[in-house]
Amino acid sequence: MAVTTSTPPAALTEDLAWLLGRASHNLNTEITAALEGIGLQPRAHCVLRGALEGEYTQIDLARISGIDKTTMVTLLDELEAAGLAERRPSPDDRRKRVIAVTKEGKAKVREADKVVQRVRDDVLSALPADERDAFMHALAKLTCDRLSEPTACMAAPRRPRTG
Asked: Going by C-beta distance under 8 Å and a sequence separation of 6 or more, which residues neighbour residue 123?
């Protein structure tokens, strides 16, 4: 019997971790491809979008975004070099630097938001209209509540690489 990648074994369709992992990977891949047209990676979009919401340090943004600290430094260096973000002294603590989105960065975020929204709408169109809001609400509740922080374990799974 030939195995196809489009039809997973029935047991996997009841595995929450597999379902969320596969959906996340495939969605991130689709968003990555869509954002290539404007020269931005999903991680960069996430960091810029987060930085627009308040005065966050790079450590804050790394934690919020789920990005490794070393990767965050490299990403911020790239965003600064592209003129999309800059590190500024914190108004509360001169030893800290907050990430500020430049005028060019704000324009890039608006452009990226439109691209991501198109992908989101297309993906969610696979669900009946009356289920979309409920799905997003339930997923947000799981992600921001019960699954907001990983459980400590001896051999933590590796995070998938994106963008």
From this structure: 27, 30
